[in-house]
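ESCALATION

Customer reports they have been waiting on this structure for their group meeting. Please prioritize. Original submission:
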Amino acid sequence: MSKKKTIKRPILKNLLWVFIFLVVVFLGIYTFLHLFTRHQQGFILPDLTGLTVAEAKKKGESLHLLIEVTDSLYMPELPKGVVFRQVPPAGQHVKKNRRVELTINSLLPRQIKMPSLVGYSLRQAKAELASHGLKVGRLHYVPDMATNNVLEQYFLGRPIEPGSLVDIYSSIDLQLGLSPDGELAYIPMLKGKSLETAIDIISDHSLNTGSIRYDETVQTAADTLAARVFKQTPGYSITPEWPLGTVVHLILTINPDLLKQEALPGPEDDL
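Update from on-call: job pushed to the front of the queue and completed.
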């Protein structure tokens, strides 16, 4: 009898271990399937940049997302009131009821007083405008004794008096002198530059920015901000051969292959 009990004990012990093993395997499979199923219930967060707040909220409601505007800034190159940035960014895997924070482009830019620029050089005028949150607009040259001396300041085609209120980041056009010597300008090489940097360089060379276009790779507000110049006309010059005030047209892209191509000097690129 005792011999039978001795034989049964290892069998029971083995059965117990098998049972424990099966329970552990079952719990492991159950946990994996539960987590996998929950993961599958999520979705890829869409791109909300470039949409109005109403459009972003409508899209969020359809996906059961909690859309909140948490910040605003003013970007003059973007339409007022559109989404500029989102957190989490587009492309992340999220679940229902996820909170998405939006930064929008302000509807009402701050107003500031117009400074007096008459008598300044172009370089001084640019620095003064920048210190007030303003930008240089069109440069119009007229005969005068001193080249690049500011003779008049304009806003929206009309003379503007110092102290007048204008929106921050507004462009102020300048009437500048051009000496009888008829100085000429270089066309700078702008490939790979951001739009803001390119415009700044163009005015530094006493030139004007013309048309600004984006190729088919630029689809969203974020693309617009990330885009770089890949084509310009006239092409850049090695010697000063262009009249002051010459217009430079730009095309921008986010295609890295286009930006890698070498830019060659020349009178004109085909736009």
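Sent to customer with the following note: Residues 2-40 form the longest helix (39 residues).
Escalation resolved.
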